[in-house]
Amino acid sequence: MTRDKSTEVSLGDQDQGTSVSTFNGTANGVEIEVDGVGCFTSTDFPDGFRWTQVIDTNAPLGGASSPYVDPHPNDDTKPFYWTDAEEASSPCHFKDTPSRTPPASGAIYWQATLGLNGVNDATKTVKGFAYLTYGFTIDNASKVTTRPPDLTGGADHRSQLGVNHRSQLTAEFGGWTFS
User: Given this model, what pLDDT does residue 12 score?
Assistant: First the structure.
C-alpha cells in the first residue's frame, strides 16, 4: 500500500493502514501478525489506535453465538482485542493463532474481520480506519485451507463488511459509539 509522506497529523486524509508480517497455516488453523501503520495519538484519538475483531464461525467457543466480538468472553469491559495492559506492552501490534479441532464430519469454517480503530476512551468513541479479513476451514480429514488476509475497504463506511463489523461491536458494547 503506497502512502503519501506527511509530517503532520491530518484527520481529513487517511494514512492509517495495516501491514501483515506473518500469515501461516498451522496444524488446526492459522497464525497471523499485523502491525498498524500510521498510528498516533491526537485530541480526537487520545488513546491512539486499537484492534477490534469479529468472528464468524460454525464452531464458536466460550459460549458465543456467531458472529461475536473476539475475545469471548471478553477480558475486560472494552470492545478491544487487547486489554489496556496488553496493548501498552505492544502498541499497534496484533497477533492471533485461532484453531479448531477437526470435526467428526463435514468442515468447520472460521473467518475474522480485524479492524484498526482510532480510540477516545473518555467519550467511548471508536472510528474504524482499516479492516482486513482472514480465516481458515478445517475438514474431518484434518485438512486446513487458509484464507489469507484481504484488505476489505471497511474504512469506507458504506462498505457492508465495515457496517457488519461495527454492528456487531455495537450489539455487544452498546455504551460505545462505532463509526
Answer: 47
